[in-house]
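Hey, I was hoping to borrow your eyes for a little while. For a while now I've been wondering how a particular protein folds. The fold is given in discrete form, as structure tokens running alongside the sequence. Could you read through the record and tell me how the tokens relate to the sequence? Take your time with it, there's no hurry, and the full record follows here:
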Amino acid sequence: MEIRLWPNQEFRIEVNETQKLKVMVVSGLAEVKGQELLSEKWYAFKDTKTFIFTFSGCRLKVEGVCDLQYVSDTTNVPLIFNILSFFSKNGFDYSKLRTFMVIGNGRSTFCFTLINFFIRMGKKVLFTEIDPSRGNVFPGALSTIHVDTLIDCIEGLRLKNPLSFYYGSTEITNMELYDLQTTKLQEAIKAKNIEDLHLILCPEGTSAFYNTLIKRFEVDRVVVVGNERLYHSLDVIAEKLMINRSGFVEEKEVGRSISRYFKGVNNEYTPFTFNVKYKWRIVRIGEMYVAPISALPLGSTRKVGCVEASEVEIAENSVLGISEAREIEDVAGSPVLGYVVVIDANSFKILCTQPRLPKYTFLIQGDLKHIEY
């Protein structure tokens, strides 16, 4: 089957995990989230909701099955491209405008599209994810990564030397820990002195919450994607920019993000499984793991949302972060080197991307579990 797209149209597809849809550009130019598709090459899509966009018009050849496919005239790609055009006309001078906080519906797609536009111009982009529910880098973590290659429409973001703090949950319930780790993350970013465009993908929150992050990360603009009500109700100290939402808002699945980390998108990696023999200390961070109120002295109160790490029993199927900390009091504010999954708690058998663990001391146990290995 052939599909004809006119300029500034999208071909939208919904493909479930048991289906596969192949698309080839027969003539003209087309792209997915800023990545230009090569002519006469098949691209196989499965378990995704995405869209193919064209600036100038194109013809596509489509084979396979999917839940839904259609052509739409509604798109936000030209608006995203206008941001690239602005910087291009100003010689990519970031002295007055560098850091963008991105919120709203479709914020991951916005970030990836803009990043790919910049990469195609030979520029790098610093991508920071402080929404632990997204999992573009790793779910349950607050991370930053310097992107210097295209984000592939099939494989997604290439995890090349990310800096990551393991928050341990996809929900922000311990604000003190979140504040500590975002502060440490920003300190690490400033220490790197990277002079490229900086996109910060943020979770949902109040205006006060956003203003705190704006000050912490020295944000120049707040981009609101696909939510006009949020844009008009938002009372923030940085200038706002409204961008219409993309064709699809694909919900990030924690299990799929974790599987990608260990096995790749198409199971191209083979992770290692082995029993841990080196003595590690399993810890959890937060108020719920310190002494209960009944155990405190009469009249005293317990600090809510504390950041102390306490040793706990290892839990089956838990996702553990490999902490760089040398002392237990430094665990909450230290980055992690990577992640493992507990396959068997009794024998301490784990799933790992490497054949052995580095010689550190602490493994951080959070709320995340993963059972598909």
User: Anything to note?
Assistant: DSSP finds six helices and 23 strands in the chain. The chain has three domains: 2-72, 77-243, 265-369. Helices lie at 77-89, 107-120, 175-192, 207-217, 228-233, 254-263. Residues 265-369 form a domain with the Elongation Factor Tu (Ef-tu); domain 3 fold (CATH 2.40.30.330).
